[in-house]
Every structure is written in structure tokens, then in C-alpha cells.
TrEMBL record:
Pfam families: Aldedh. It comes from Nocardioides ginsengisegetis. This is Aldehyde dehydrogenase. Residues 12-461 form the Aldehyde dehydrogenase domain. Keywords: Oxidoreductase. GO terms for molecular function: oxidoreductase activity, acting on the aldehyde or oxo group of donors, NAD or NADP as acceptor. The active site is at residues 241, 275. InterPro entries: Ald_DH/histidinol_DH, Ald_DH_C, Ald_DH_CS_GLU, Ald_DH_N, Aldehyde_DH_dom, Aldehyde_DH_NAD(P). Belongs to the aldehyde dehydrogenase family. PROSITE patterns: ALDEHYDE_DEHYDR_GLU. It comes from the Bacteria. Residues 1-23, 497-517 are annotated as: Disordered. SUPFAM superfamilies: ALDH-like (SSF53720).
Length: 517
């Protein structure tokens, strides 16, 4: 989720704060519209050099950058910890996954995007047909604060590997991570192919209007709509990865300990500030009580505080505390029960794990993205009801299924861009899988082959190998050529499946058929 702050009147700098203590981490510039355009112009020059390199040469540069990031992993994780408040272990995991995606994009871009032959077909047999995927130019990336490295790296790494330059606008809550990435890239490559601009919503809007060739945005659905509106002014295409309200389904034959562990981690890791995190659980009535007991047993020892070794950090964005509190209160007001936590679990910086049951399906806690360590758990009569409830929101980002016998079947019926079976959020860690959603969760894809192609345009080339037997694209075309074309097409495509005839009309409920002797 990216929620944009308004720029303070006349501010030329701003401070990033440690959400655990409120201490200043660093001071950063508020880049103006003119400065954003200058950055895009520099990126345009760098893109000319970068796109002219071979895939192998770009792979070498990206591998060098990957090496620098990896060797400074502890430094990066500490910066992420200070800007987001997340535990060092979670920051290290995030950075490690981002590095893995960078490596995959660098080594697979050539295989996916290089020129390849395609069939020209019999009608155009005299042509040689090829398709390749060429870089767009300069990509604008607007990143979130909850995963300030992993999430934008899904756009940055794949756009760079495809041959584009990138101008990155990180969240105003985590600008230091963005500057760190740009600085280490410059040290590794020596050209400003990756640049960063910092600031508030105005800076992001300026990037949308600065002449970039595509914008990749991760954040809330509401902010995504504003990004699309700004990009529409110049017909700039966008990739939108917006919010989610992901569900976890537990079938009667599921491993309940594993399902409970996954539900708790999916709901509470990163203090619940995960777009693909688990916010709803639907459990088969045969195992509901057992699952809930195991979930509560695991959850009772989990605490969010500033103590060393704490597994849960603070809520990074202070305004989100009001959202979390309102969702819990609405659930309780509408007949729900807090079997763990509750309204009192929402503090000044930290939110304790909260598990709600008997919550109506039309409540805020079920329909709207909460973005905190909360979970609604509901009993369902069967998996049909579980699927129906899972698909009953306007979001469609990720999902999870725990089932020994029906995992693939149930996963295929969920209306979401991604599903994990007997695991949680595992799809995000697999570089070859596309990442993205449908509905209010956005459109377009990062990661995998689809993520590489997202930052390119397909270039189709038809080359005549020899003169055509049938000269069709000419005003000297003959009647004989037209007849031969009709015969060829009939031979190739005229044997379609016969459409069954409609049943005969009936009279008085009796089908009158002709008798045969």
C-alpha cells in the first residue's frame, strides 16, 4: 500500500523517521517538477547507451550490481529496519528475495525477449516471420513503504534487464532505501541508468507527467486511480499493483498445524502491512473448532513491541492506526467477537495480533483492506461456500488453499492473480511466476517472463524469402489468384466442427418423431 502525504507548504526537504522511536533517520530533498524532468532527460540519455548493449553485457552489469547489494546486505537491512521499523530478520528476508529476483531477471531476459522465428503459415509461406521484444525507453517506478526493496525491485530489475532506464520515486516514508539502490547501481555500472527522485505526492505526479514511457505503481487502489488519471494526460501506460483482501481456505483434510501457522504468519508478518497478506480465513465446519484452537495457541505468544528480538514491528504509517481501529470496532459493533486482541490492541505505535470471529461478510474487516495484524476467521459448510465468500470482494490479488486432496481444483476456482497451496505467499518468492492481480487489485504483471515483457513492446517483422505463388497484395491480382486463395482457405479451414442441430419442437410435451420401417 502507498498512501501519499501532502507536501508541506514551501518545503524543500523532508525527514524520514524511525516509526519505532520517532527519531530522524535522514533528511531528503523534495524534488520539483523541473528536477523530475531533468532526471528523466538524464535517464533518456543513459537509456540510449543501456539499450544498445547486448543482453549478455547487461547481464554482466546487473550481476555486478547484485554482488554489491549482496555484500552490503547487512547495511541495507539495517536501513530498512530503521525506516520501516520491521525486524532485522524480516528486512534481511526481503532483501534476499529482491536479490534473487534481480539475478533471475538478469539471466533470463535474453532467453525471453530476444528475436525468435514464428510460423508464417501456408497462406504466407513465402515470408519469414520473427518477433522480438524491445525496451520502451524510460520507466517510472513509484514504490511502496511496506516492502521498500522487494516490491519496487520487481519492476526495477525486470525493466533494467529488458533494456530500459528507470527513474524511481520511493515512498516518502522510505526514501533512504531508494537512494541506496540508486547509489549502489551507479557505483557498479557507472552510468545513471537507475535514478531516484524523492518527495511527496507532487513528485510522483510529476514523474507521471515527465515523459516516461511507462509507469509501474504499487500502492492503494485509490492512489492507483490518481496515478492512472495523471498518466492518461499523456497516454502513458501503467502497471498497477494495488490493494488486496486475501483469503486463506482450510479444507476438512488440511494439515491444521501448518494452516494455522500460515494464517498467523500471513496475517501478522510485517505487522500485517502486506498487500498479499492473509486477512480472511474460511474453515470447513468439520475442523473449524480444532483450527481456531491451534491458531490461538500459536498467536498468544506473539507480541508487537520495541524489545530486542520482537517478531512484530510498529505500524509504519501513523494514519493506518485509525483504519485498523475502525475495522475492529465495526466488526464488534456488528456482532463479531474478538477471541484475541480487540480495539484495545491498537496502541500509539504498535498493534497486537487480533483474531475476530462471527464477523458479518459485509463488514469493513471483511470487505476493506485493513493492513494490520488482524484476521477474521469464519466457519463454512463446505468448500463451495468458501470459494463463494473468497470471491465476493472487489479485490483479487493473492490467496491461499490448505487441502491435501483438492488443492489445485480449489486454487483454480479462486478469482485472484496468484494462489499458494499448502504454503503462504510462496508465489511472490518464485522469480519465474508473474505477480499481480485483477479487479481493484490492479492489472499488469511484474516478475517472470510476463514481468520482462511488461516493460517492452513486441516488434514483429515479416521478410519476403521468395516471390509469392499467389500475388495477393497488389492491384494486378488476378481472378485466378483469388479463386486459388478461396480453394486454399477452404482446404485449410473449411472442416470446422459441425454445430449440433436444435432439438425438434414438441407438442403437448411429446416429441413427435418420424417412424422408420
Amino acid at each position: 500500500m502507498t498512501t501519499v502525504q501532502a507536501r508541506p507548504e514551501g518545503a524543500t526537504t523532508f525527514e524520514s523517521l524511525d516509526p519505532t522511536t520517532g527519531d530522524v533517520v535522514a533528511t531528503h530533498p523534495v524534488h520539483t517538477e523541473a528536477e523530475v524532468r531533468e532526471a528523466v532527460a538524464r535517464a533518456r540519455e543513459a537509456a540510449a547507451w543501456w539499450s544498445a548493449l547486448s543482453f549478455d553485457d547487461r547481464e554482466k552489469h546487473l550481476t555486478a550490481w547484485k554482488g554489491v547489494v549482496t555484500r552490503r546486505l547487512a547495511q541495507l537491512a539495517d536501513l530498512m529496519h530503521r525506516e520501516t521499523g520491521k525486524p532485522h530478520g524480516d528486512a534481511t528476508l526481503e532483501a534476499a528475495l529482491g536479490i534473487d529476483h534481480l539475478g533471475w531477471a538478469a539471466t533470463h531476459a535474453g532467453k525471453v525477449l530476444k528475436r525468435r522465428k514464428v510460423s508464417a503459415g501456408l497462406v504466407m509461406a513465402n515470408q519469414a516471420a520473427t518477433v522480438e521484444y524491445k525496451p520502451l525507453g524510460v520507466i517510472g517506478v513509484i514504490g511502496p513503504w511496506n516492502y521498500p526493496l522487494f516490491t519496487p525491485m520487481g519492476s526495477i530489475a525486470y525493466a533494467l534487464a529488458a533494456g530500459n532506464a528507470v527513474v524511481f520515486k520511493p515512498s516518502e516514508y522510505t526514501p533512504g532505501v531508494g537512494e541506496w539502490l540508486a547509489q549502489t547501481f551507479l557505483e557498479s555500472v557507472g552510468h545513471p541508468v537507475l535514478q531516484v527522485v524523492t518527495g511527496f505526492g507532487d513528485t510522483g505526479a510529476a514523474l507521471c507527467r515527465a515523459g516516461v514511457d511507462k509507469v509501474a505503481f504499487t500502492g492503494s487502489t485509490a492512489t492507483g486511480k490518481r496515478v492512472m488519471a495523471a498518466c492518461a494526460e499523456t497516454l502513458t501506460p501503467v502497471v498497477i499493483e494495488a490493494g488486496g483482501k486475501d483469503a486463506l481456505i482450510v479444507d476438512a483434510d488440511a494439515d491444521l498445524d501448518a494452516a494455522a501457522d500460515a494464517a498467523l504468519w500471513g496475517a501478522c508478518s510485517n505487522a500485517g502491512q502486506t498487500c498479499t497478506g492473509v486477512e480472511r480465513v474460511y474453515v470447513h465446519e468439520q475442523v473449524y473448532d480444532d483450527f481456531l484452537a491451534r491458531l490461538l495457541d500459536q498467536a498468544r505468544g506473539l507480541r508487537a513491541d520495541a524489545q530486542p528480538g520482537s517478531q512484530l514491528g510498529p505500524i509504519t504509517m501513523p494514519k493506518q492506526l485509525d483504519v485498523i481501529r475502525s475495522h475492529i470496532q465495526d466488526a464488534l459493533d456488528r456482532g463479531g467477537r474478538a477471541v484475541l486482541g480487540g480495539v484495545e490492541a491498537v496502541g500509539e505505535r504498535f498493534v497486537q495480533p487480533t483474531i475476530l470471529v462471527d464477523v458479518p461478510e459485509d463488514s469493513l474487516a471483511v470487505q476493506e483492506e485493513t493492513f494490520g495484524p488482524t484476521l477474521t476467521v469464519a466457519k463454512v459448510r463446505d468448500m463451495e461456500e468458501a470459494i463463494e465468500r473468497t470471491n465476493a470482494t472487489r479485490y483479487g490479488l493473492g490467496s491461499t488453499v490448505f487441502s491435501k486432496a483438492r488443492g489445485m481444483e480449489l486454487a483454480s476456482r479462486i478469482r485472484s492473480g496468484m494462489t499458494a497451496i499448502n504454503g503462504v505467499i510462496t508465489f511472490a518468492a518464485i522469480p519465474s511466476l508473474p505477480f499481480g492481480g485483477i479487479g481493484d487489485s490492479g492489472f499488469g504483471r511484474i516478475h517472470g517472463e510476463d514481468g520482462l515483457k511488461e516493460f517492452t513492446y513486441p516488434k514483429a517483422i515479416a521478410r519476403q524469402r521468395f516471390k509469392p505463388v499467389l500475388a495477393l497484395t497488389t492491384f494486378t491480382r488476378t481472378d485466378k489468384a483469388e479463386q486459388q486463395l478461396a480453394q486454399l482457405v477452404t482446404m485449410l479451414h473449411g472442416r470446422g466442427t459441425t454445430i449440433p442441430k436444435a432439438p425438434r419442437a414438441t407438442t403437448g410435451g411429446v416429441n413427435r418423431r418420424r417412424r422408420t420401417r
